[in-house]
Protein: Phage protein
Amino acid sequence: MKINAELIGINNNIIKLKANDLINFEHLRLIENNEKLVVDVTVHDNRGITGEQNKLSHALIGDISKFSGDEPEHIESVLKYYYKAKTGNKFSHSEATKEDANNFINFLIDFVLKNDVPLPKRYTYLTQNNYFFYACLKNRKCCICGCHADIAHVESVGSGRNRKQIDHTKHHFMSLCRKHHQEQHSIGINYFISKYKILTVKLTYQDVIDLKLMTKKQVEEIKSND
Structure:
């Protein structure tokens, strides 16, 4: 059952909604089945796609086009088809909200990294986009040059510590190739991050499992000791 409503108030974790149409309470009682009713609330983004998002998405499409050798218009339609097949959502630059555009850009970032599409430059918006740096970790790509990379701790974990006992969710990470990892040690972490405009990434427990930094068993052991 779908109810269209207007958000009229929030008090801590209590949300107040006003339905735009009359609600069929008989149907609600029927589907309630003597249990608590659970609802999912989707808040629609009223903000339109920004000029920066529009520019970046077309720049990434252009880079993919050059890599494939096909015309940008054709590649754009193919990518939008792939996006709909993957997410179930249709994307249109002319109708997109800011959130829609962000999701589509994240899809393009994943596509570029997974398929080793060369980027002629590090676009300013990418260095302001936390998902780009997370996607570099996920795809083991250097967030600076795009070469194969390892996951690097920002905070030193110490040479004598057992990494299997470290709670990696307490640390920040970045994805660096060997060359840039050596440079980071050479010039110092703070100057290195400032020089390359890196947004370091904080990971969740599910992230560290997905990235194989910790096993599910290790996560459960650390949680039980908290």
Observations:
- The first strand starts at residue 5 and ends at 11.
- Residues 51-68 form the longest helix (18 residues).
- The chain is about 45% helix and 10% strand.
- The mean pLDDT is 87.
